[in-house]
Design a protein that fits this description.
Layout lengths: L5 H13 L7 H11 L3 H15 L11 E3 L16 H15 L2 H4 L3 E2 L6 E4 L5 E4 L4 E6 L4 E7 L1 E5 L11 E5 L2 E5 L3 E6 L4 E7 L1 E6 L6 E4 L2 E5 L8 E2 L11 E8 H9 L5 E4 L7 E7 L3 H11 L2 E7 L2 E6 L1
Parallel strand pairs: 6-8, 17-20
Antiparallel strand pairs: 1-19, 2-5, 3-4, 4-7, 5-6, 7-10, 8-9, 9-12, 10-11, 11-14, 12-13, 14-15, 16-18, 19-20
Helix pairs in contact: 1-3, 1-4
Length: 316
């Protein structure tokens, strides 16, 4: 099975939790059967989830929902999703595993969710790996190559160590970035690679075209294998993540939570009716639970947590 749609994974985890509730009805059982029949992928995800369940010796009948809310009230609460932490937690771990290509697990340098790592290379250059990042490095007499498989890295090239007469190149799934004496950030996403240049300059060459572009200090741009986007001014505090900080300035809540989710295990949802709310502030990413508490204190929202690994931000 290849990469699975996030919606299917989300639904599978909810069904797995729900089917262990004491009040799981015949109608719900029929709905689950129809869900499994939607496609071979649905059935494959379900069978693998069931395999996890059978390995467990005990299943509690329900799990409560913790609510982080500045104005707690019992009125209007959504009904609790009854399930089991013991089943849901390993399922989420398995789903995350299934989503990662083998290159990430076998990478020379990689980080877990919420982890930062600084690495000094053989030529004296420095890499800082952001959360959930993975790279392989080739550093010899023929190349200075960083193959970035996932995540985000800051690169600070050296000019005084071994092999510094060779070009320094970062390669992603969308092309190559050649450092021209510089400090820069590369963030890989499924559809594109984003470059932010802090010092010096970087030449971009997309994988499927010979036409490149030099991006200079104070500039940022995204590109894919075919095209390079419009160059824009560098975002303020672009490298703040290297200090474990997220700066938000009038940021859409949906975008804010997407950034926070990068530093958490499990699932963090944003309800559609609060997605366009705006948030500003400086947040310490080392404690994402605290980030969510502060958010709920400043916006008309609350965080519904089914487990430590499953949270949804909804209107309060």
């Amino acid at each position: 099975m290849g990469r699975v749609d996030a919606r299917i994974l989300d639904e599978a985890a909810q069904w797995l939790a729900r089917c262990h509730a004491s009040d799981f009805s015949t109608a719900e059982r029929d709905s689950l059967a129809r869900w499994r029949e939607q496609s071979p992928v649905h059935e494959d995800v379900w069978q693998r989830a069931q395999q996890l369940k059978f390995q467990l010796e005990a299943v509690p009948s329900s799990v409560g929902m913790a609510v982080l809310n500045r104005s707690r009230s019992s009125a209007g609460r959504r009904s609790l999703l009854r399930g089991t932490t013991l089943v849901l937690t390993p399922l989420l771990g398995w789903l995350a595993y299934r989503q990662l290509p083998w290159q990430i697990w076998g990478a020379e340098y990689r980080t877990a969710h919420g982890e930062l790592r600084s690495v000094t290379l053989a030529d004296g250059s420095r890499l800082v790996l952001n959360t959930a990042s993975a790279v392989n490095v080739r550093m010899d007499d023929s190349a200075r190559l960083v193959h970035q498989h996932a995540g985000e890295i800051l690169v600070e090239t050296s000019h005084r160590g071994a092999h510094t007469d060779l070009p320094f190149i970062v390669r992603t799934g969308h092309g190559e970035l050649q450092a021209l004496g510089t400090k820069f950030i590369v963030r890989t996403q499924e559809q594109s690679t984003a470059l932010s240049v802090l010092e010096g300059a970087v030449r971009i060459t997309p994988a499927n075209t010979g036409r490149g572009l030099v991006v200079r200090a104070g500039e940022r741009v995204s590109f894919n294998a075919q095209n390079i986007g419009e160059v824009a001014p560098l975002a303020p505090h672009a490298d703040a993540w290297t200090e474990g900080v997220l700066y938000a300035e009038n940021m859409r809540l949906k975008d804010f939570l997407a950034e926070v989710a990068r530093y958490r295990d499990g699932v963090l949802h944003c309800a559609p009716d609060v997605a366009e709310l705006r948030i500003s502030g400086v947040f310490q990413l080392r404690d994402t639970d605290r980030v969510l508490v502060l958010m709920a204190q400043t916006l008309p929202v609350r965080v519904e947590q089914r487990t430590r690994f499953w949270a949804t931000v909804v209107r309060s």
